[in-house]
Amino acid sequence: MASLSRLLKIALGTVLASLLAASSVSMAEDATKPKKKKPQTEQTAPAAAPAPAPAVAMPSPEVMLILVRNAILALNQANFTGNYTVLRDMGSPSLQTASAADLGIAFANLRQQKVDLSPVLILTPALTESPAIAANGVLKLAGHFTTKPLQINFAMTFQPVGGVWRLHGLAVNTSQAQP
Description:
The protein is globular. The strands form two sheets. Strands 3, 4, 5, 6 and 7 form a five-stranded antiparallel beta sheet that branches. Helix content is 26%, strand content 22%. It contains five helices and seven strands; from the N terminus they run H-E-E-H-H-H-H-E-E-E-E-E. It has a single domain, classed as Nuclear Transport Factor 2, Chain: A (Roll), CATH 3.10.450.630. Helix 1 crosses helix 4 (100-106). A hairpin with a 4-residue loop joins strand 5 and strand 6 (150-161).
């Protein structure tokens, strides 16, 4: 049986890019100045200058809303049907290594509780952290949907793959809604 950390990693690895094909990632050139080369001596081999990595632009609020809603709806459909194959196949390449069975285990608690995540279709999430793009280009979004009696909490990451934001990690749980 998979360890809890593996299950959490798998839970953070559910995928869903084909729903996001309309939301493209815009890549910007790195605006940093070229670095000065060190003078070469006879004892030192010339160092290859690393190519500047393209910076990933922050998606618009509308695109972030689509990303969050699509990820949670895909999970809701997988939980409803018990079939996590499509969810897995739509993710970033590094997370497509998880099996559909692993994803089913990772989200078994939500499935067994029969949590209906579909209200995310009509509600706007409240972000609990500012959206951020890490140095490796991964976008992190975290927040909740104010639903009753249970609030839907989420943390998810997206990775740009071929100009499209693809789900890279997903954690969803519920808590008692605030009065």
